Amino acid sequence: MHRIAIIIFPGTNCHQESFRAIKKAGMEPVYFRWNESYEELKKFDGYFIPGGFSYEDRVRSGAIAARDQIMSVIKEEVLAGKPVIGICNGAQILVESGMIPGLSGHNLTAALASNERGYLNIWVNIINNQEQGCCAFTIDFPQGEHFCLPIAHGEGRYVIDDDQLKKLIDNGQTVFRYCDDNGQIKEEYPINPNGAVYNLAGVCNPQGNVLALMPHPERTSHVKIFESMKKYLDKNPKSDPRLDRGRNPKQIQISKIQNSKPKINGYQVTANAFEIYVDLIITDNEAQTLTNALHQMSFRNVEVYKKKHWEIVLKDQPDFKKFTKDLITSGELLNTNKEIAYIKLKDKIFKYSAEGLTPVESIPEVGDVNLLVRDKNDYLGQGKLNTLQNRLNIKSVKSVKSGVVWQIKIKSKTQEEAKKVWEEIQKSNILFNPFSQEALIIC
User: Fold this and answer.
1) Of these residues, 14, 88, 134, 204, which one is catalytic?
2) In which band, very low, low, confident or very high, does the pLDDT at 259 lie, cut at 50, 70 and 90?
3) CATH classification of 3-235 is 3.40.50.880, yes or no?
């Protein structure tokens, strides 16, 4: 019987239904945690990366898990023809790892970005857009067959540039697309629920043995995708030895995702705007997770700190002290029970407290590099603007932009060495996905 590893990262929560779906399709599912023996991982016939919130979606969905050492092993097994399916968060991990679309090695060439309408938990229709058997997961699907599946995600919007999309279409990689009840592909909501380019719901790699799918077939009685996976394996039988459980994983050198350096511009504050930097009073687990991930990627001399960032553009010139108090105490931009606001107005910095604004020399933990990362489609900022203006009646606000500042400290003997480290970190794309986000250096 074909054995399928159900990969469990910290935060995975769809493993039980994934287990049941694989078993129902006539294969043997086995839970495999991210920190188990990689030699044992190689003995499986295929891999299933389930949904959930790996590493709590820290940095962005799938970004940390995609750079975990276990993914390097799975990449090697993919080259041997073994099938891999990633659903929801699993799809995000595959895209962040570069395995999907897989157009140029494992370079990052796409993103699964924030939905146009926020988190969705609904049923949708998808259609097999390609010839039957174009990939390992459509052997049982005639072209044009459509069916209903649930989705439950906040970041499932495929983003890819036009040239890469054309290659996907020409290669037959656009496997599953969102459609209506009659199988008609239409771009409008809710037929295309998240605003994905080309109505993409599921994309395979050029070889057809890896599939990233946002809807959840494992939560339904619809197991044809997994039965197709079994038929693919039936044609490619393996006779690997049984599992030898309980050993510590062999430490291997993680293969960095090789990309060209992404474009990063300098940050310039918008006219008539001021900035709010939000710092956590408690330990910032997201920054610590990013630091740990960089250490695993051999950047052991790097420490990262984090600040939430808001750029507020004003319509007029209100009483600044009263305005900032109203803005911060609204609770929309931060939680003052666990966060501190630093306000930067031109060349002056103030620390906010209930007593008022206190001048300070700088924002804490200034790094050797201070990188502002924003979503290109800033739905969070747009939503906050709407709330401030229309619900809280704070009319002096003209626009709100949201982001995160990564404060990166590089401990190196020379500036030249630090520069090289920074160049390599940029190429890893761990700090931002250039297809869905922009990055700006704060001087």
Assistant:
1) 88
2) low
3) yes
